[in-house]
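Quick question about two entries, pasted in order.
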Amino acid sequence: MYQNNLIKGGDVNNAIVVVDRDISADEVDYLAKMFNKNPNEFQVTKGGFLNNMDLRFHNEPARHKLLDLIGDLTLAGVSLKAQIMAARPGHSSNVEFARKSTGI
């Protein structure tokens, strides 16, 4: 996302970064450079979050995905009165769903 100029105000202090694998020293250096931080400031906890980020809710990532889905459908101009069950939603699949449901 950074390479595509999509992270404009993102920072390790205002974002939840989920780490699902071991990261190398080179990756830590890259992250530090990207966020203009010292590489020694980065750590991955056993919970899988960068810099031991505390979640406000136990299901916060799922809540975020739900809000993304609602936002994407709204931006696409879709007005639905329906129950939507989404497995692994993401912006591109949300937009594709909006296109198919409206015939755009």
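Here is the second entry:
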Amino acid sequence: MKAVTHDRYGPPEVLRLSDVEQPVPKDDEVLVRVYATTATRSDCGLRSAEYFVSRFFTGIFRPKAARRVLGTEFAGEVESVGVGVTEFEPGERVFGIHSGSNAEYVNVRESGVIAEIPTGLSFLEAAAVADGALSAMSCLRQARVDSGKSVVVFGASGSIGVGGIQVAKHLGAHVTAVCNTKNVELMRSLGADEVIDYVNEDFTENGESYDVIFDAAGKTTFLHCRRSLKTDGIYITTDPGFMWQDLPFALVSKRARIGFVQYTKPDILKLRELLEAGDYRAVIDRTYQFADVAAAHRYVDTHQKTGNVVLIVREEGIAAPG
């Protein structure tokens, strides 16, 4: 099968489509025939190793053999299942999270982060929702967001940002989205109660205070935001580039937190419910053919993407709702 691989760290040009061995499902695994996957900010960070700490997991000098294939999100059809699998069967449309998903096939444990695609959702849409939504669920849970809380989503137009807006609204929060000028109307359409264009206004200077400030893109710091937090308010960030600036404060203050994302089966099932009810929708900026993965990474590297960038692995039926 074909998969996106990299044998060294560096710019998008280190990526290539390679022939790799097709996985065979174990007793508790589902083999997914991938139709669509994504190019995310995290994928680009792992490819370039711009955050040196990631090398301790992927390989100090070059990617380990087990980490050569990139990708996190997938959408496709069940090709086959292990003998112990009861939840899924061949032909079902599924989506979820699994390392190494930039490939024509991926093996996922039945108990892993995988769920049936809701009726009416395309493979393109299904591929573009899991990482952002589940990352937002995990972080907002850590920040104790619930009904009536006031939440700022900073970097609101990225994949995790659009997830943050929609998940926070579902939880009953009052949401202020902070984004650039071109995405103001999109933020409103996703349910944001207020939208601040950071090109023209610094939200920390508006005199307001908030229960939670969720930095969904690593574009600010606890020091910059602390005066805009309520007395018991929480600042939480997800981006490794700023985590290390915020880490000392997270160690000594209950108001600063590092958002260590955990993908879980209950969360992907909850996301499926939201999608089916029409309470969550995909935001797709651009699509690229699988062979054009380097171009997709170059675009993501500009830090200008809105929502997600999808890679089309198979053309047949890619955009057609099931």
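Reply: The two ends are 25 Å apart (CA to CA). The chain has a mean pLDDT of 92. Hope that helps.
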